[in-house]
Automatic annotation (TrEMBL):
Residues 9-223 form the LicD/FKTN/FKRP nucleotidyltransferase domain. It comes from Segatella salivae F0493. GO terms for biological process: glycoprotein metabolic process. InterPro entries: LicD/FKTN/FKRP_NTP_transf, LPS_cholinephosphotransferase. This is LICD family protein.
Amino acid sequence: MLHMEQHWGAIRHQGYIPWDDDVDVYMPRKDYNKLLELRCELEKSDYEIIDIENKGYYLYFVKWCQRNSTLIEKPGEPSLGIYVDIFPLDYYDDKYCKPLIRYNELYRYLWLIYGYGARKHSIYSLFHIVRSGKQHFHINFTAFLDISVFKLLQLPARYLINKFQNRLMNAPKSDYFWLYSIISCESFPMSIEWFGEGKMMAFENIEVCMPNNYDAYLTRVYGDYMTPPIGKRPSHHARYFVDFQRRLTTDGILRIRLNK
């Protein structure tokens, strides 16, 4: 089923909303794990599954990527294909999940540390940064931290992230789902009854699955969901480099940008 703001888009616009122009999907943990098992079967297809097992990737959810395309949102991030973000839904039990709520800020910083350590700075890009001189001191310093301090902290951060993930996956069954997010306001219980079998609704030129009781869901998340909030109307996604026809390396992209 579609994720939060895509529900909103389907209801208000029958498609994308201006301030969130990608596609995010919810998937119960059991189905999410089945999806990950398809990784090998997809090796000769036009698509691939990207998660923390992929070198350079550092987000807490999976991306379903098109192989023959390139998208980098920010410098230093891995070269991926055009993607759909897929978020796992875990069972929510109040007593069991309280420690996770208490340490949500730690979880966020662990992912940030892991991400900074995963950012790629090739010899070519580092040479370009150094050559740029003092005017790009903050870029030089950031690159230095990434390849030194954060790289050393990456393994301990990954170990603790796995501890969090194991607790999430072993939650007792209940009548509620939740998305345990690094954004604490997104980590709230959602009645499984809201989702039901789902209902199909128009989204751009296709049909997508929505919760049976999307009104209860959207009201819980946004309140008056028919009115877009002030300050969230522009898109919040950066686009450092996009190519819809081929997959390029980060070094190849840097050369293209320098030659423009």
